[in-house]
Design a protein that fits this description.
4-stranded antiparallel beta sheet, two-stranded parallel ribbon, alpha+beta, 5 helices, 6 strands
């Protein structure tokens, strides 16, 4: 699995931080980039949605924190390895929903995912 070099920033307080390295799946669990989609809703985004976000190089959720990384894209083989890791992770209940893959942007995919799975997230908590 590819390694990602990234910085995490706290939502409040000091912005002093250091670069970290982690396998891609751990990067996703340890940054706010896809934490709601993967942990709250348990749905894996399709390759083009991951790449849309990975190419940004940063993500800021205000008081919820932020992170920076060198922009990158996954190829299909790397994506398949990530999906296998996420689906087989015993610490999380994560699924793949290919019905949502037709959504062309993160915003449209996220909206469809919320419409379909928001009730599941509420029931988890």
């Amino acid at each position: 699995m590819i390694e990602v070099k990234f910085k995490n920033y706290a939502g409040t307080g000091s912005q002093d931080t250091h670069w970290e390295h982690a396998p891609l799946d751990q990067f996703l669990f340890n940054t706010p980039l896809f934490v709601y989609e993967l942990l709250a809703f348990g749905v894996i985004p399709p390759l083009h949605i991951f790449n849309e976000r990975f190419l940004l190089g940063s993500y800021d959720v205000g008081m919820g924190g932020a992170c920076d990384w060198k922009p990158f894209q996954l190829i299909e083989e790397e994506y398949n390895e990530l999906v296998e890791s996420l689906l087989t992770n015993p610490d999380h209940e994560i699924i793949e929903d290919k019905e949502l893959w037709c959504k062309p942007t993160f915003k449209k995919w996220h909206g469809a995912m919320l419409s379909k799975y928001a009730h599941n997230a509420r029931n988890k908590h």
